[in-house]
Design brief:
- With 231 residues, the chain is α+β, with helices and mostly antiparallel strands.
- The protein has a single domain, classed as Nuclear Transport Factor 2, Chain: A (Roll).
- Helices cover 28% and strands 21% of the residues.
- Strands 1-5-4-3-2 form a five-stranded mixed β-sheet.
Length: 231
């Protein structure tokens, strides 16, 4: 007697078996479609939007960058200033308040570098971030009320000068906000290829605060720039 051939399911039976196996695989995979594209990574919450379309947008970017503790914030801050390595761009220079410079040199027994350029600016964001490292920061621009000329009109020229008061507030989780930077600045902007940037920062002390403030951290950007050399 010939042995029975091995059993093989009929074609229709094989189709049903494969259907059941696929269904089980989907159920065991918590209904996850293996062919679905991977979900995109969530955006970086520390991302600082960089806007350079006008002097006002540059000021907004600087404010957001100084309020951020992220590497992206430090990069955005530095990119607000002109880079003379780009053909046609002016070289960034910052000028100290004279009284602040003299006071810092007397206190530290060091000589302030001249000129202050983009290379010296590299550690400024990091220094300011460390003044109150656990506080939230809010940088505020206000209009100059000391009698400076009106701002130039960016629609009329590719180089303009703005006059501003600045204040950096450090806000604890509980407690009273502190002012840790305050002063006035005359800023010169240039536009190259549709992009505005700051090429000159002329710093001035707030007369209401003075060169040697009672609250020791109510300093100008002149002071914090110089302090970035030692911290």
């Amino acid at each position: 007697m010939n042995p029975l051939p091995p059993w093989r399911p009929a074609r229709s039976t094989r189709s049903r078996v494969w259907g059941v196996l696929v269904l089980l695989a989907l159920l065991l995979g918590a209904c996850t479609n293996p062919f679905k594209p991977a979900d995109p990574e969530p955006p970086d919450s520390n991302q600082v939007p960089e806007k350079w379309g006008s002097p006002e947008e540059v000021l907004e970017t600087v404010a957001r960058a100084l309020a951020s503790r992220s590497t992206n914030g430090a990069t955005a801050y530095l990119r607000a200033f002109s880079d003379s390595t780009v053909p046609g761009d002016k070289a960034y220079r910052s000028f100290y308040d004279g009284g602040v410079k003299t006071g810092w040199e007397h206190t530290t027994q060091q000589t302030a570098p001249e000129p202050w350029d983009i290379q010296q600016e590299l550690n400024v964001h990091n220094t300011i971030s460390g003044i109150r490292s656990t506080f939230d920061y809010f940088w505020q621009w206000g209009f100059d009320d000391t009698g400076s000329p009106l701002d130039d009109d960016p629609a009329l020229s590719d180089t303009v000068v703005f006059h501003r008061k600045y204040t950096l507030l450090a806000v604890p989780k509980a407690g009273t906000p502190e002012i840790i930077a305050i002063g006035y600045v005359d800023m010169a902007f240039e536009k190259q290829g549709g992009r505005w940037s700051i090429y000159r920062w002329v710093d001035r002390v707030d007369p209401a605060v003075g060169v040697n403030p009672a609250a020791t951290d109510q300093r100008t950007m002149s002071w914090w720039r110089l302090e970035s050399l030692t911290r």
